[in-house]
Write a structure and sequence with these properties.
By secondary structure, the protein is α+β, with helices and mostly antiparallel strands. The chain has helices spanning 2-17, 33-42, 47-55, 78-86, 129-138, 161-178, 209-214, 219-224, 226-234, 241-247, 255-268, and strands at 69-75, 91-99, 115-122, 154-158, 186-189, 194-195. The radius of gyration is 21 Å and the shape is globular. Residues 70-212 form the Peptide methionine sulphoxide reductase MsrA domain.
Amino acid sequence: MRVVLTLIVTTICLCTYSSAIFNEYTSCNSSSFIGVLKLFVNKKKKSIVRNEQKELNIKPVHALDKPFKTATFGMGCFWGAESLYGATKGIMRTTVGYAGGSKEGPTYRNLGDHTEVLEIDFDPEVISFQDLLKLFWNNHEYGLTTPIKRQYMSLILYHDEEQKKIAEQSKQDEQKKRAPEIVTTEIRPKTNFYPAEDYHQKYRLQGHRDLCDTLNFNSKLLQTSYVGTKLNGYLSGVGGLEQFKTEVETMGLTPTQKEYCTYYVEKNEGQGLYC
């Protein structure tokens, strides 16, 4: 009887204190709890992941050696936009930044006449520029048909004449759908782009600090990482669990990292974009 009680108390304690593992991992009622138990018993949050990386020869996939094209959009606050596109199939990298203005070296506190934008590298064999525009028109947080300050304005910065033509036709089509409202989106050539400060890059993913540590992020990788791009979207609830399962093997995650990410993808699925 004493043994049984000891096991019960131990289980309760493990559930109660599992929140210490990977920061926010608070539920002991999930399919991923086995991974949490491993981490808890080890008492070193990241050591199991490091051991898995070494023993299984697994490295985070930060770069894909594939041809790509680039799109640049302003959709209001860039945090939500980065999560949206990150969990979209065919997206290889995302970087938030400032563009469209004349000020040299803008910062978030001294933006000048620039706009918050998202730069998207995409695989044209998987997703088209037209597909990216469909997401653009349907996922503005604000400002699509209401004039707003330049920092959050609706903006398409085209990279070539083909993008310009597609964007202009797409805007005409969108205007017809939304009449009598007026679409305020500006379409202009991309002439500059200044990456935002590190704390803006992959903003949702950075809330999972220990996971980020095991992915070996630095200032550059926060801007360019493939696995960072994907997880910043999926962990925010975009894309959903079933789609995540189709892409997770491309990211270079260890078994414990997969368990952790699966838990949060499922937990946050469908909660919607926000800033």
